[in-house]
Specification:
The chain folds into three domains: 1-38; 70-277, P-loop containing nucleotide triphosphate hydrolases (Rossmann fold), CATH 3.40.50.300; 282-460, 2-Layer Sandwich (Ribosomal Protein S5, domain 2). Helices cover 26% and strands 26% of the residues. The protein has eleven helices and 25 strands.
Length: 461
């Protein structure tokens, strides 16, 4: 008997090798190779068998008619924002997230809105039965009669139904459950996921069907399967958040039709996901009054300004090596800012433990929150209460200077809308701002100036 040929695939980038290797030559990841049966290649017809009329012909660039891509609204403003303005026809969208975070709920609500607007929708599930989907749909509300469900894991049957029905939007839940009979490996393997995505991509582009794919994530937070999966699709969305908390964050890490900086905020309720129109007010809800080590900062996510609370706790260390902990921001960035505070502001933080947290579970890495982190640390160390009506933004350099940040006008307007009366911001942003009424702007050039202002304006506990 002939031995069945196998090859090794890298789970991160899809690199193929005839033998196992500890490190992938493609992405340099360690211990990512898995053994899979080799795909049987079909013999293609030679060039002599192709008629002259059937040969592919290239198109001249200037002859291409460039028209604006038609988008359909999903009925959810937050989802449309992340997608870049709506659902693009004939696109392939990958939605990833932790188990139980609400991926299926989000897509099922989107299907309901699309069906109510007259679009044909087909929900294909390989994980749940028809009765289970019906139970979840009843919890979300009433659905129109045009909503269609199909439970199948065989990719051949899925392809036949999609090509026959040609719906406007199709949902595949999930890609790890789909399998092709032409591939000899188990469902969820590297070869099966890659083949299934390739078939769905052909259907989306060939039949004009917009397909949303649900993908499971690994413990590191990336979509399970080969990294080439994310390269094949048009848009990659991640649904994030603590499953024990009420809010969820939808962000795009890849989008061929829009920005990847936008985020959508949702709140999980008994009736499903509810859009949060004003995330700043939602994130600042429950903020303590007259507490040291707390300051409000502004971070931009695409075109949306978000106000978040930066919390810091500085205390005397009981060990020889002080402990530093961060939640929601970069650990190394906080260590760098503490070194600037110690050297340029004269605060002895070398023997103190420091804990920095962005309240609400948000993750922010924008340099514009540097000044707020510094002032929160100083406020906790000196027991200074920063007034609740103060909002801060600005980047801090290694020389202690406060550097300019983008979109200063939008940040000030967001603070004004939420009732803040004072904004501490870089002095170099003064030329980019129009005259503001009803709000006081404190321009600072250095970190020392900002610390001096909070020491004079704030009070001791």
């Amino acid at each position: 008997m002939n031995k069945k040929k196998t090859v090794f695939f890298c789970q991160e980038c899809g690199y193929e090798s005839s033998k196992w290797m500890g490190q992938c030559p493609g992405c340099h990841s360690w211990n990512t190779f898995v053994e899979e049966p080799a795909a049987v290649s079909k013999k293609s017809a030679g060039s002599s068998g192709i008629g002259r009329a059937d040969r592919p012909v290239p198109v001249v660039l200037k002859d291409i008619d460039l028209t604006e891509e038609i988008r359909k609204t999903s009925g959810m403003a937050e989802l449309d924002r992340v997608l870049g303005g709506g659902i693009v026809s004939a696109s392939l969208v990958l939605v990833g997230g932790d188990p139980g975070i609400g991926k299926s709920t989000l897509l099922l609500q989107m299907c309901r809105n699309l069906s109510n607007n007259g679009a044909s929708v087909l929900y294909i599930s390989g994980e749940e039965s028809l009765r289970q989907i019906k139970m979840r749909a009843d919890r979300l509300g009433s659905f129109p009669d045009s909503m269609e469900l199909f439970c199948e894991t065989n990719l051949g049957n899925v392809r036949e139904v999609l090509e026959r029905k040609k719906p406007d939007v199709a949902i595949i839940d999930s890609i790890q459950t789909m399998y092709s009979e032409e591939v000899g490996s188990a469902p969820g393997s590297v070869a099966q996921v890659r083949e299934s995505t390739n078939v769905l991509l052909q259907i989306a582009k060939g039949c004009g069907v917009t397909i949303f794919i649900v993908g499971h994530v690994t413990k590191e937070g990336s979509v399970a399967g080969p990294r080439v999966l994310e390269h094949m699709v048009d848009t990659v969305l991640y649904f994030e958040g603590d499953r024990h908390a009420s809010y969820r964050i939808l962000r795009a890490v890849k989008n061929r039709f829009g920005s990847t900086n936008e985020i959508g905020v949702f709140e999980m309720e008994n009736e499903g996901l509810r859009e949060v129109a004003n995330p700043s007010e939602f994130l600042l809800d429950g903020r303590p009054e007259n507490a040291s080590g707390s300051v409000v900062a502004c971070s931009m996510n695409g075109t949306r300004p978000l106000l978040v609370e930066i919390q810091a706790l500085v205390c005397q260390s009981n060990f020889g090596i002080p402990r530093r902990t961060t939640v929601g921001t970069d650990f190394n960035r906080v260590n760098l800012l503490m070194a600037v505070i110690e050297r340029k502001a004269g605060l002895a933080l070398g023997a103190s433990d420091a804990y920095v947290n962005i309240a609400g579970g948000m993750k922010m890495n924008e340099p514009a929150i540097d000044l707020a982190i510094c002032l929160a640390i100083v406020s906790s160390y000196r027991e200074i209460i920063i007034p609740d009506s103060v909002m801060v933004f600005g980047e801090v350099g290694l020389s202690g200077e406060v550097r300019s940040v983008s979109m200063a006008e939008q940040r000030v307007q967001e603070a004004k809308k939420l009732g803040f009366s004072t904004v501490i911001l870089p002095a170099v942003c003064k030329g980019a701002l129009k005259k503001q009424e009803g709000i006081e702007l404190i321009y600072v050039n250095t970190l020392r100036e900002a610390i001096s202002w909070i020491c004079s304006a704030g009070g001791k506990k």
